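Why should sequence recovery work at all? Because a backbone constrains its sequence more than one might expect. Tight turns favour small or flexible residues, buried strands favour hydrophobic ones, and helices have their own preferences. The token representation captures these environments compactly. In the example below, the structure is given first.
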């Protein structure tokens, strides 16, 4: 069982794919880390030796991942909200930040539809 940055890597996957379980590491960075550590990216996680795991750990420590990266992202969002820029206002309102439509989509950010009571029409 390979454990890097307090994350259990899935044992049946190749090491460069298994590294993507760590927040902040994608496929390309996973391959780069494997090459820098001198580990074959196609090796299964369960077949790694203790020495290879140690080299991978050392290489991953050179990158901002997991808790540190989450903290940086949250601080950036908080900073935008404090200065009142467009993206900060959208974050405060819980709306999409990157220019997506909101009149018929954006249910992930906005939540379920809110029911509005019907007004009765005035009759003459």
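From this structural description, the recovered sequence reads:
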């Amino acid at each position: 069982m390979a454990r890097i940055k307090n994350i259990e890597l899935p044992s049946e996957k190749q090491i460069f794919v298994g590294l993507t379980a760590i927040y902040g590491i994608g496929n390309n960075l996973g391959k780069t880390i494997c090459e820098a550590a001198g580990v074959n990216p196609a090796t299964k996680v369960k077949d790694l030796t203790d020495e290879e795991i140690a080299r991978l750990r050392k290489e991953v420590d050179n990158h901002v991942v997991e808790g540190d990266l989450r903290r940086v992202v949250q601080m950036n969002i908080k900073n935008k909200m404090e200065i009142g820029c467009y993206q900060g206002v959208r974050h405060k309102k819980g709306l999409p930040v990157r220019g997506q439509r909101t009149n018929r989509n954006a249910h992930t950010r906005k939540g379920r539809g809110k029911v509005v009571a019907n007004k009765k029409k005035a009759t003459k």
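A few observations help interpret the result. The chain has two domains: 3-63, 67-110.
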